[in-house]
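Budget justification, computational time. The allocation requested in the original proposal was used primarily to generate structure tokens for proteins on the priority list. As evidence of use, we reproduce two of the resulting records. The first is shown immediately below.
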Amino acid sequence: MIATLVAVWRFLKTPLGHALFFASGLMIIGALVYQGGVSSGVDREKAAEVKRVAVATREAARVAKASAAISSQAQQALNAALNRNVALTYQLQQKVPTYVTSQADRRCIIPAGYVRLRNAAGAGVDPVPAGAGGSVDADSGLVLSELARNDVSNAAAFHTAVAEVTAWRDWYVAQAALWTKTTRAPEPAP
């Protein structure tokens, strides 16, 4: 072992040994400097990522809050429209006897053909043809006041559907505007 150390020492005293020793020292210093720079760069990037995540988290929370507010407004508008529809339907149902009197019920014959056509339209199908010997002009037995009550109920269902579609469309437009305003393409990776 001592002989090996003596041989290395003699080699290092030669010009080639000096050059190798100097080059080795430079390589070690360069590696340490490089490692320090990489470590420093990694630490800086980790700190920057923590900041980016914090900003993104705050922005996501802000957008989620704005989105929830849009949904809440849409639900409140829909509830108000549905409540108005229920109240109006109740009022109209109460007024049927005023506007369609029992005298009008007695004078008006609702034909079977009309009832079949109306039922088909409500179901979204082609009307069933009259049976053999059945006239489309025959009395259906339906009185005008019942038809009026049914019309009020159908109108209420229609207005409920319109209110829901309107609320959905308004919600969608507001959410799309929020998305467009707050969402952007991701930043390229460093």
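The second record produced under the same allocation is shown here.
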Amino acid sequence: MTAATRSQALRVVHLPARTPYARKLHSKDILILNETAIRSGATVPAAVNASWLLAHTPLDWLDVLHLHHIDVEDLPTLERLLDACARSGVRVVFTAHDTRPMYGSAMEFTARLQLLLAADVQWVCLTESSLVELACLLGDRPPATVIPHGYVVPPDALLRREREQGSPSARFLMYGASRASRDQLSPVINWSLGVTDPKSTLRLLLRAFSPVDFAPDSRIPLLLETARHDPRIRLSMRPYPSDDDVVDAGLASDVLLLPYLWGSHSGQLELAFDLNLLPVCSRTGHLPEQYRHHQGLVSEPEWFDWSTGHPNLFGERFLTAVENATARMASSTSRGLDRTFLDYRAQEHKSVIDAYAQIYGGDR
């Protein structure tokens, strides 16, 4: 990118920018500043937070602040950041990935949303139904544009890739951080005891644990103990799995397990669509609408009702979905990458970028 182009492009900071969702929102007209040096010589962290930005005011070195996950920002700090943006003429955009908090209390989360609603913030929702839910939660409809999640893996990155050919037995994958919204233990135990095929495998790609993961009621030690006793379960850990780590694991698998206890939207579900993996997915939040956005272009996930009904039925529903997925894989002649869908993803991304360019630029 030339200096002239850089000066004309909208300078955007994502809070944070560690996910593919944020990092893909760039073009010749949109320049992401995370992990680049600014005028002061400081480098904007990928996982930048409000305190770092407030320590680098005035914010005249950026044009747009794009907020993603605000759970860990305390309300006074977030309010000071919004004030600093207003003083510097920085446009603030907020993508409501979640309609309930990943961390902290629902009351604190709602208070943060109310603060954004009262400020001059442009909202983005990933689904129409999430916008309806937020309007009910806040008692007022946010000024939001609905823009779908889009791809997780750039189609160009898959041009020369293909799924690894393995045995006829199904290869399962589960990855991600340990979170309250996602159960890891019971799916692994149910898979280990319920899937009897000796050649079937389950790969667990984990993010590095922190002390908080080993609170007195932690289930992680039992998860690790279960994995050690079943040689078909393959554990690997990364500090923070890279895009390549995830893609490599996906292309060596057939089925992606998404055992959310609750949630609003899922980038992992979109990854399954990108890689033509069969998702075994809890029917929670707005995930069914994410699928309906691509209905007719991707295979329908093997849904199970995890977040409703009697809690003692959760395991039964999950294992039934795993068995159904195994049967679907056995009857499938090929599950290579779907090049037609990847072409569609590329066109979809152009629409996503155009929509964000409009929101970022406004009347500029």
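A brief technical remark on that second record: The first strand starts at residue 10 and ends at 15.
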